């Protein structure tokens, strides 16, 4: 076999990418340093074009709850392709019915659902549906939340502390756009409040006609920030008092936390919920669902009240089959318990190592989602993280992990994800590597 200069393979792909792809990488949140070109992944491990292997805790921003290329899910996809099932684009197909039935039986708040391709589409539909249902235009979002790329929700996820300014308990934060090109008219309808700040939500609701509050129940785009006890119940009650729709964005928490979503762990029922990511273990599928009277507005008899939901590829049989296979596997086996056992060893091991290192740390977890904050307490919101977390040390740690074969995306306080494919051996290896690199941090 010819000797390949591996680093030039890597560089050649990156150079070609920058010739043809705007920004050199598809989906620019993947533009990170180091810029690695991956070639394959199976289970808990990814391999780059140079043949270097990594234990993966990024999971492509979290969908891989069962691990990469799970055989059961892939076989369901192969079966769909072999059976000549297709995207008919007319009428109902059996797979979408089966999937909708499964979703409604697993998540108690789902009376009706619709299927999309992505989480962003699902949140866009949830906002428009809430606006149509309430006849109001204003919406409330949380600081540090990410709910997709569209205009209504594109506020900065991790702005600098300078941009955010002082802590604003009981009131709004400025809308700091995550993108250029968002009309001022849109920004004026969006109110950004701190997570866990009920008073701020209540104050905005008294001032403006609010269609919905859209929030992750656990903030998992800035690590893992838990709701305070009673926060989610009070949030739903506040929405009911003011006639607003409470929308949970469970794109990250859903199915990873539990089969019934995080809402089943918290024992609450939001009015609408969106799901994505882990629901189809890496295949592109999103879900919007919830209360019948709200969801029925997608098919209102009065065309003035009807809310458009359409998409050429919605519930594509490949993705629907992947989602069904994922959910059926999660229902059949004690997967969440098994992942929890592995997580426990990882989390305790990391805590021990950082305790011995003597730097402030707090390991925050929500089942298989975790974040090692380099600060001395559990954060209550993004402001707390920006004020206290050592982002520089965090990125240094992540880069050292990557160099040594553990992939944790080199962006500060991004959630880590453990999968069903992670073995105790993976965890021991991760801890051994951490033990080796921690001294030089
Ligand atoms: C909580 C949350 N909501 C919505 C989205 C958007 O989902 P998608 O990237 O599938 O459009 C994401 C993506 O990271 C997310 O984390």
List the topology elements.
Layout: H1 6-20, E1 38-42, E2 45-48, E3 53-56, H2 71-82, H3 94-106, E4 112-116, H4 119-134, E5 138-142, H5 161-164, H6 184-187, E6 190-193, H7 198-207, E7 210-215, H8 231-242, E8 245-249, H9 262-266, E9 272-275, E10 286-290, H10 292-295, H11 317-332, H12 335-357, E11 362-366, E12 369-373, H13 382-388, H14 391-403, E13 406-407, E14 416-417, H15 424-438
Parallel strand pairs: 3-13, 5-6, 5-7, 7-8, 8-9
Antiparallel strand pairs: 1-2, 2-3, 4-10, 9-10, 11-12, 12-14
Helix pairs in contact: 2-11, 3-11, 7-8, 12-15
The structure holds pyridoxal-5'-phosphate.
Task: Report the CATH architecture of the largest domain.
Answer: 3-Layer(aba) Sandwich
- How would you characterize the largest beta sheet? 7 strands, mixed
Strand tally is 14
Helix-strand string: HEEEHHEHEHHEHEHEHEEHHHEEHHEEH
- Give the CATH H-level superfamily of the largest domain: Type I PLP-dependent aspartate aminotransferase-like (Major domain)
Helix content: 25-40%
Which kinds of small molecule does this entry bind, naming each only once? pyridoxal-5'-phosphate
What's the number of structural domains?
Answer: 2
* Average pLDDT score: 97
Distance between the termini: 40 Å
Which percent band covers the strand fraction? 5-15%
Largest sheet, spatial ordering of strands? 4-10-9-8-7-5-6
- Cα-based radius of gyration, to the nearest Å: 22 Å
Q: Remind me, CATH topology of the largest domain?
A: Aspartate Aminotransferase, domain 2
Shape: globular
Name of the top-level CATH class of the largest domain: Alpha Beta
- Work out the helix count: 15
Structural class: alpha/beta
Low-pLDDT segments, ≥5 res: none
């Amino acid at each position: 076999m010819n000797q390949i200069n591996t680093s030039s393979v890597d560089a050649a792909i990156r150079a070609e990418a920058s010739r043809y792809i705007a920004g050199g990488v598809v989906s620019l949140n993947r533009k990170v340093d180091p810029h690695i070109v991956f070639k394959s992944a199976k289970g808990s491990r990814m391999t780059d074009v140079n043949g270097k292997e990594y234990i993966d805790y990024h999971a492509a921003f979290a969908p891989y709850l069962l691990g990469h290329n799970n055989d059961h899910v892939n076989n369901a996809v192969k079966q769909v392709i072999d059976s000549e099932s297709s995207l008919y684009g007319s009428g109902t197909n059996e797979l979408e019915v089966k999937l909708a039935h499964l979703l409604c039986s697993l998540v108690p708040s789902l009376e009706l659902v619709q299927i999309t391709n992505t989480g962003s589409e699902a949140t866009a539909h949830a906002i428009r549906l809430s606006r149509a249902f309430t006849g109001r235009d204003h919406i409330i979002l949380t600081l540090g939340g990410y709910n997709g790329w569209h205009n209504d929700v594109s506020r900065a996820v991790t702005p600098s502390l300078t941009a955010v300014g002082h802590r604003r308990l009981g009131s709004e934060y400025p809308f700091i756009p995550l993108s250029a090109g968002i009309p001022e008219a849109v920004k004026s309808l969006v109110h950004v409040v701190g997570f866990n700040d009920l008073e701020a939500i209540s104050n905005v609701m008294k001032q403006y006609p609010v269609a919905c509050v859209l929030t992750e129940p656990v903030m998992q785009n800035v690590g893992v920030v838990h709701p305070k006890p009673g926060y989610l119940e009070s949030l739903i009650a506040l929405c009911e008092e003011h006639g607003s729709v409470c929308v949970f964005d469970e794109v990250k928490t859903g199915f990873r936390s539990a089969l019934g979503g995080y809402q089943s762990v918290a024992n609450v029922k939001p009015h609408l919920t969106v799901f994505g990511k882990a629901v189809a273990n890496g295949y592109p599928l999103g879900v919007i669902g919830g209360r019948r009277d709200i969801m029925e507005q997608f098919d209102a008899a009065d065309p003035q009240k009807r809310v458009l939901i359409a998409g050429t590829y919605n519930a594509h049989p490949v993705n629907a089959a992947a989602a069904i296979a994922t959910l059926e596997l999660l229902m059949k086996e004690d997967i969440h318990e098994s992942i929890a056992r592995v997580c426990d060893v990882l989390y305790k091991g990391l805590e021990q190592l950082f305790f011995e290192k003597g730097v402030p740390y707090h390991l925050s977890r929500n089942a298989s989602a975790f974040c090692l904050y380099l600060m001395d307490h559990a954060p209550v919101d993004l402001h707390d993280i920006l004020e206290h977390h050592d982002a520089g040390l965090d990125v240094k740690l992540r880069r050292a992990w990557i160099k040594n074969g553990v992939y944790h995306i080199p962006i500060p306080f991004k959630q880590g994800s453990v999968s069903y494919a992670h073995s105790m051996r993976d965890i021991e290896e991760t801890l051994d590597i951490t033990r080796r690199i921690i001294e030089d941090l």
